[in-house]
Amino acid sequence: MTSDPSAPLPEDHATDHADALSLSAQLRDAVARAGIARVAPGEAPSGRALVAAVGGVRGLAESILPGFAFLIVFAVTHQLVPSVVVPVLVGLVFVGLRLVQRQPLVTALSGILGVAISAGLSLFTGRAESNFVPGIVVNAVSLAVLLATLVARRPLIGIVVGLLLPEGDHWRSDPVKRRVLTVATWLWAGLFAVRLAIEVPLYLAAQVELLAGIKLVTGVPLYAAMLWVTWLLVRSVFGQVADGGTGDVDAAGGPDRV
Question: pTM for this one?
């Protein structure tokens, strides 16, 4: 006896199916909001897209100025309290500007939250270098996640590309695409590994000023450079579609982001 494929799914199966679709939609939406999605796989990257991927001019300021303020204040005063409080005030200024201009607060609030956590940890421990512990933890977790996807043979950049394109994870059956996406994922793992290799020894040695300066250099600038390299790598295997070729992916179907 065979079941009728057109028959409705049992209620529990239908619920599970709906939950799976909802999770998939949420993942696609999250990826579409990420910086990497500012250029659809296969499209040519541009300077404007790169600036947009790091949050635009205001986003750059919100990312860089709190850390820069910490560096300047600590270098001048060598006092813990003003060094961690001033960056929080800078973040609050950006939140206030967004409120006045009725702009989205997500970026500014996430930034001020990170700065506030770092400041609170420094004040709690009484050590200026503790200001960098949350960033070190984020880098370590990011590296672990990237390495886990590589070990599982599902490189994270491939997962992201699969969420952005209609073909899904069909890239896994293409050796060239799989190799390029794996290399791109290794490069991102290398970025976080380099940050940790530099920042952890400086943290242990309590080299606060040098640590603050290095973090600025390996932060947005290095992120932007890696994003550009990733776009070029992905374009090298998905670019035929964007250029009007006969590839198997409709790159134009990607979100208008990154």
Answer: 0.76
